[in-house]
Amino acid sequence: MPSEPLLRVRELHRSIGGQKILSAINLQIEAGKIVAIIGPNGAGKTTLMECVSGLQPHDGSVEVEGAVVPAGARHRFIFYQPDQVLPYPDHGVYSTLLFFQSMLCAGADRLSEIIDRLKLDAVLNKAVKELSRGYQKRLLISIGLLSKSPILLLDEPFEGLDIKQTKEVVAILNDEKANGRTLVLSIHQIADAQRIADEFLLVSDGKILGGGTLEQLREKSGLSEGSLEDVFVALT
Questions:
Q1: Looking at the 3D structure of the chain, how many domains does it have?
Q2: Does residue 221 come out as left (phi exceeding 0), alpha (psi in the -120 to 50 range) or beta?
Q3: pLDDT for 59-113, tens place per residue?
Q4: What residues form DSSP beta bridges with 34?
Q5: Domain that residue 24 falls in
C-alpha cells in the first residue's frame, strides 16, 4: 500500500477583490523531494506558497502526513521564506542571524555552519539594508536553513545570485534533502529548476498545468523528448 504523501493540497482556491488568483489547486509532494514550482511572473507561484504556509486565507485544505493542518498551526511543519522581504534592514547581519537562531531554536554550531557555507563572514558587521542583492538572497536562505520545519518553502532562491553562487546554493539545498528535508522552491528560470528539482509543478494563470518528473511531464504534453521549457510551452 503506497505511503501517504508528506504534503497534500486539495481544491485550494484564492480570490482577491473578486478576482481569482488560484483555482482548484491539487498537489501532493513526497517526503525528501525537491519540487520546483515553475511559471511566469503573475502565475500565482508566490500566492500558492503563502496559502500553503498559512499566510493567506484560502478555500480548500492543506494536509501534512494525511492530517488537515489549520493555518495557525502550519509553522510547526512548514517554514516559508519569501523573496525580497528584508528582516530588520537597519540591524546588523550578525545580530539579525542571532535573533533568528534564538527564535528558531537552532544551535550555535548550526549557525556557524550556515554562515560558513553561504559565505556571510565578510558582511556580518554590515547593516542588512547595505547588502548587495546576492548577499540579501544568501541572508534570506540562511534564515530558512535555521528553521527546523521538515518542509521548507523558498521563493526564488536563486534570484540575484551569479552562476558560482547558484551552484553553491544548489549543493547546500541538496544536502538538506539528503538529511531528510523536503523543499518546495518557486523558480522563475527554468534552467535553474532543471538543475536542482526532482519534480516540477507547472503553474500558469493560477492553475496547475501538470506535475511530476520531466519524463512524466513529457508524456502528459505528448512529447517523446525535449527540455522542461519545451514541455511548458507545449502545455500552455
A1: 1
A2: alpha
A3: 999 999 999 999 999 999 999 999 989 999 999 999 999 999 999 999 999 999 9
A4: 183
A5: 1-77+152-158+184-236
